[in-house]
Design goal:
The chain has about 325 residues and is of the alpha+beta class. The protein is built from 15 helices and 13 strands. Helix 3 packs across helix 4. It binds zinc ion (ZN). The site of zinc ion has 8 residues, from loops.
């Protein structure tokens, strides 16, 4: 067998696979669970549950349950070994989410091979190896992704369609530190921060997805909202695990709904830049959040700073905590 079982299951999450098979599920509550009609037996009322985080299913109707491979065994009437072969072919196929996942995995592998990437992370104050893994930070050297994904069986059309490869057929991301953007636990986009002179921020076409790590952040009674992933990284590193990021100051409708999903306090921690755009955005957002019953406080960093530069230039957790306490309503 060419590939480890766990890797295969990660590369092709159960929920992605079911959606490819046209299964429609709706969220069951606020957690990672989805519910829909069971594909394994006829029914009119949904009793088939998928836990996207655990990557498992269970049907209360027919009592079947298990992982992706078990599902394929049951639905396709294949043996365990036949199911693996079938899935390996499937995952190399034509699903954009699977391709983005493969691209992200490739970029994560590259990070260790390019000292300039690790140097850049260090400059931005990101040193904790466990954190780098947790945030799935990768590096796009440029010029090698296309070859890698074609060899994995992806079509060039699909690579163009996802935006990973530009219309000229070259890798889109060159010399960029790369973060995955997720929605419902699936990668829906990639963000690349340029190390060089190219335009600093770049996404692939399409949605930027959910607030970062919302599943774990949403349980806190107060959350810190920042603009960028390097802000989030240094805050997490300093112990502020209730920080999340919207990839910019403009929240998409899904992200806005997430912030409003229960009463809470939101610490708006946008850049304090010379032209005042960060603070203007914070004011506008505070207004919209108040209308939804959310308490907001504006964290006033020293002029010219964002949370990243605050920590990189010597600020510590105690000082940042004081800023939170002093943040005006
Ligand atoms: Zn069933």
């Amino acid at each position: 067998m060419g590939e480890d079982l766990e890797q295969l299951k990660q590369r092709l999450p159960l929920l992605d696979y079911l959606r490819q098979q046209n299964w429609t599920g709706r969220p069951a509550g606020q957690g990672p669970e989805f519910v829909g009609l069971c594909p394994l037996h006829p029914e009119t009322r949904p009793s088939f549950y998928v836990n996207a985080r655990k990557n498992l299913f269970y049907c209360h109707g027919c009592g079947q349950g298990g992982d992706l491979i078990r599902f394929v065994e049951l639905s396709q009437h294949l043996s365990f070994r036949q199911s693996l072969t079938y899935l390996e072919q499937q995952s190399a196929g034509a699903d954009p989410a699977a391709v983005l996942r493969q691209a992200s995995a490739f970029y994560q592998q590259q990070l260790d091979c390019y000292p300039e990437a690790r140097r850049y992370l260090e400059q931005r104050g990101v040193r904790d190896l466990a954190l780098i893994r947790e945030l799935q930070i990768g590096y796009a050297p440029g010029g090698s992704l296309r070859r890698h994904l074609l060899a994995q069986g992806c079509s060039l059309d699909l690579l163009r369609h996802t935006g990973l490869v530009n219309p000229q057929g070259h890798d889109t991301f060159y010399q960029r530190v790369v973060f995955p953007c997720c929605q419902d636990g699936r990668i829906v986009n990639l963000y690349g921060r340029s190390l060089g002179t190219a335009f600093a921020h770049r996404f692939l076409p399409g949605s930027k997805g959910d607030l970062v790590a919302w599943e774990s952040v949403r349980q806190f009674p107060s959350v810190i909202l920042v603009e960028g992933m390097f802000d989030l990284a240094v805050l997490w590193q300093a112990g502020f695990r209730h920080a999340t990021c919207a990839w910019g100051t403009h929240l998409n409708p899904g992200q806005f709904r997430q912030l409003c999903d229960r009463p809470r306090t939101v610490y708006l921690t946008f850049d304090v830049d010379a032209n005042g755009s960060g603070q203007q955005a914070a004011q506008g957002l505070a207004h919209r959040l108040h209308a939804q019953g959310i308490t907001t406080r504006r964290v006033l960093l020293p002029p010219g700073h964002d949370p990243n530069s605050f920590f990189v230039q010597g600020g510590d957790a105690r000082q940042f905590h004081s800023l939170l306490e002093a943040a005006p309503l």
